[in-house]
Amino acid sequence: METRWTPRVTVAAVLERDGKFLLVEERQTRGLVLNNAAGHLDCGESLAQAVIREVLEETAHDFTPTSLVGVYLSRYQGHDPVRGRDRDLTFLRFTFCGTLGDFHPERVLDTPIERTLWLTPDEIRASTARHRSPMVLRSLEDYLDGHRFPLDTIYAHESVFDPAAFETR
Question: Domains in the chain, start-ordered, CATH in brackets?
Answer without folding.
Answer: 8-155 (3.90.79.10)
